Amino acid sequence: MKIKKFLLIILLSISLYPQTLFADEAKMIKGLEIFNETAGCAACHILKAAGSEGNIGPNLDTVEGLSYNSVMDIVTHGLGVMPAFGEDEILTKDQIDIISFYVANSVGK
Amino acid sequence: MKKKLKKLKKLNLSRRNFLAGTATLAGIAATASVAPITIANANHSEGKKGLPDFISWKDRNALIVHSDKGIETHRSAIGESLVTPNRNIYIRNNMPTMTDEQIGNRMDWKVSIEGVKNPKTFTIAQLQKLGHETMATILQCSGNGRGFFKHKPRGSQWKTGAAACVLWTGVPMKTVVDACGGINGDAVYMTSAGVDHEPTGLDPKKAMIERSVPKKVFKDAMLAWEMNGVPLPNAHGGPLRMVTPGYFGINNVKHLGKVAFTTKESSVKYMKKSYRISPIGKKGSQYPSCWEMPVKSWITRPTDETGTVRAGKVQIVGVAMGGTKKVRSVKVSVDGGNSWKKAKFIGPNLGKYAWRQFVLETNLSAGTYNLASLASNGPDRQPELRMENRRGYAHNGWRDHSVNITVV
Questions:
Q1: Structural domain contains residue A16
Q2: Does the residue A56 lie in any domain?
Q3: Looking at the complex, does the CB of residue A84 fall below 8 Å from at least one CB of chain B?
Q4: Which of A28, A33, A74 sits opposite B154 (nearest CB)?
Q5: Within a domain: residue A12?
Q6: Going residue by residue through chain B (408 aa), what tens digit of pLDDT does each one get?
Q7: Residue A80's domain is classified under what CATH number?
């Protein structure tokens, strides 16, 4: 019984893993595109993983406690000179989800 | 995936360089509706000491790095000799610090004075002939204490260290106004504008730091070129900064280019939309701007930063400020506010806009204690609780600022 359960978990993991991986990979690729081009984040922020050197807002690699939620919050509502990409409908909800995922998974890399 | 991303990064970088070369960035220009920009040279890469290059001269051990543009002073490092050393002073910049190259010859830096009988432009060299004064004020970020708010407002999570007591040297604004024949009769505000947005090429309406304060502020204000005995560092707004005593840091405009006496508040984003104290979930220019600082105090030693506290005689020390009024008294509690004892002010009194140091000598036996301080400027005293607001501004509640210590 235990062996069957174990095999089932292995099988499920194998079948789901590539899907998750591909979804994450697609998000990272799309996120980089939004960061450097669509939203122009690169113009204002350093993010080593994106090769950006903007010097208006903070260097994202140095921001303490940066997370998916904190990026989403700030991208949606803006701060100071940073536009409110969500409130002002500059980016769609999907794009904000992707850029938040991308930045949160790119800082410090 | 790494290979793909690397390839894409290279591709995008070459495209970005091309776009920058043509002085436009498609993304931000098209989507964010701001002026086309060129990429500014990064001057804030991490230096050897773990601080950004533009402030590599600061004391890393005295500072908490929230980001390369939001750097806080440790609670125990604001200085126990009244004035905060420059190397320990916090950094909060809305625009990149201007470089020596961008500033040029400091004596040739210009500031224009408008809304006066005879509008004029002065260089620093000319201002230095006009008058000379030194004064002490508290520089404090509007969001100092934001880190205590439970709803996690956006922005640096400062606790106590976005504040400093500073000696400024410069020319009194009143002297400058007199040299221009006085203020135009219908002016209501003194509006100061920085020029640090100019190298970025961003739309001034969105990026310019232009702040209006009530006209009366000019009577005690200063155009400062020196900070704690040295030429005003670029990172703190050199070579010339507006100092508005008793008013939050944002009104002390850095890299000052213009002072105008105006009938209306500035219409830039940093005046109209930002720095408004609104209820959580609400925003708008109908809410009060971050102007006058409220009465406030906090204990700097002992805290969890200052090491083991031995049972016996203990000196509880801290700083207290009255905002725009003289601070009158401070009380200290060692039992979470159940009982209070009057603390003693020590050290020189540098005027109502500086903070006062206080000390309470007491005996503590082994155990745990909650230490709190409560300042009063006469009409106002610190409330127990924070004033909840959307962006976490103007926190002066004593309970959040209290510290827990263990005595052994």
A1: no
A2: yes
A3: no
A4: A74
A5: no
A6: 555 555 555 444 433 332 232 223 333 333 332 222 233 333 334 454 689 999 999 999 999 999 999 999 999 999 999 999 999 999 999 999 999 999 999 999 999 999 999 999 999 999 999 999 999 999 999 999 999 999 999 999 999 999 999 999 999 999 999 999 999 999 999 999 999 999 999 999 999 999 999 999 999 999 999 999 999 999 999 999 999 999 999 999 999 999 999 999 999 999 999 999 999 999 999 999 999 999 999 999 999 888 889 999 999 999 999 999 999 999 999 999 999 999 999 999 999 999 999 999 999 999 999 999 999 999 999 999 999 999 999 999 999 999 999 999
A7: 1.10.760.10
C-alpha closest to that of A91 among A30, A42, A46, A34 = A34
Residue with tokens 């990979």: A25
Which one of B12, B46, B65 has the shortest CB-CB distance to A36? B12
Structure token pair of residue B2: 């790494």
Under 8 Å between Cβ of B242 and B192:
yes
CB-based contact (8 Å) between A97 and chain B? Answer: no
Domain with CATH 2.60.40.650 in chain B: 296-407
Q: Do A55 and B40 touch (CB under 8 A)?
A: yes
Contact A62 B16 (CB under 8 A): no
B142 CB near a chain A CB, below 8 Å? no
The single-letter DSSP state of residue B46 is: B
Return residue ranges of chain B for CATH 3.90.420.10. Answer: 53-272
The CATH number of domain B296-407 is 2.60.40.650:
yes
Q: Say yes or no for a CB contact (<8 Å) between A64 and B67.
A: yes
Q: What is the domain class of B53-272 according to CATH?
A: alpha beta
Asked if residue A62 belongs to a domain, the reply is yes
**CB distance from A71 to chain B under 8 Å?**
no
CB pair distance less than 8 Å for B12 and A51 = yes
Helix (H, G, I), strand (E, B), or coil: what is residue A36? helix
Give me the DSSP letters along B281-335. Answer: T---TTSPBS-BPPPEEEEEESSTTS-PBPSEEEEEEEEEE-TTS---EEEEESB
Cα end-to-end distance, chain B, whole Å:
55
The verdict on a CB contact (< 8 Å) between A51 and B269 is no
Q: Determine the 3-state secondary structure of B248 from DSSP.
A: coil
Give chain A's domain count.
1
Residue type, B159: K
CB contact under 8 A, A62 and B155: no
For A46, the domain range is 22-104
